[in-house]
């Protein structure tokens, strides 16, 4: 029995913690992936200003294992870390995609885009003896692609490379290509399930999933982390941690789960071994456009401004209570 888009999204949003997305979606999705691979919808993966953490996150995928992702899930034409080609050979791959697969391939961009000095702070290949910058490659390939996946915080909003004073003029992908094509998977690093689920959706339904106001798939960024956090009962009971390692809500220690939109509490990380709050660390809101400058200090109290206010108005009285508790804790 086929899955409707509504059913697909519901499964993505309500999958039980510890169960991989592909396992939850079942054999029909595996069949969709196999058919897509046979049709060879190309995927081209570029890296700009980044730490390669999003690629490492995908390499840590357990179910399906990375071999299945590369060989069956996607027809990976180029990835700078695992492809043998370099130099002008890479430029030829780009030209082939633009010429032969226009509006058929998916462009994945990991890392941010430097704009200053005409983008020369990040060159990735060459053609005809001339250097090709990530800016030039993303603009050309993005225009010809069917969809552009901004893999991770840096590609989505600039991330740490775009932090103040941002000397290279870093921007996110949607500042240099048509933003209507861009899907932001804005965690730091990107979650493997978010990537695989997005790719499956685009291939299965031939369209971009419903996005929120920051161009993130609503099925993976449904609500503030605070609403489903495992420490929410402690917050409701007024029990707050004052030191790292304490039991209780971590909001006095700078937890930004009120403004961070993600399904981390449900999906977990590293095959649900852990996630930030479960490990005792406050959420740093790495999913948000304000990261990292607007989320600093990472491990300490910070003022919640109107711009960073919780997504739901119901948290306004709670925000006031937290600010009062923070002021009291600093007096101790």
Automatic annotation (TrEMBL):
Keyword field contains Transcription regulation: no
Leading EC class: oxidoreductase
A Pfam cross-reference name: Oxidored_q6
Subcellular location field: Cell envelope
GO cellular component terms, semicolon-separated: [Ni-Fe] hydrogenase complex; cell envelope; ferredoxin hydrogenase complex; membrane
Residues holding [4Fe-4S] cluster 2: 226, 229, 249, 255
Gene3D superfamilies: Cytochrome-c3 hydrogenase, C-terminal domain (4.10.480.10), NADH:ubiquinone oxidoreductase-like, 20kDa subunit (3.40.50.700)
Annotated [3Fe-4S] cluster binding sites: 264, 283, 286
Gene Ontology molecular function, alphabetical: 3 iron, 4 sulfur cluster binding; 4 iron, 4 sulfur cluster binding; electron transfer activity; ferredoxin hydrogenase activity; hydrogenase (acceptor) activity; metal ion binding
Quaternary organization: Heterodimer of a large and a small subunit.
Record's protein name: Periplasmic (NiFeSe) hydrogenase small subunit
Taxonomic source organism: Pelotomaculum propionicicum
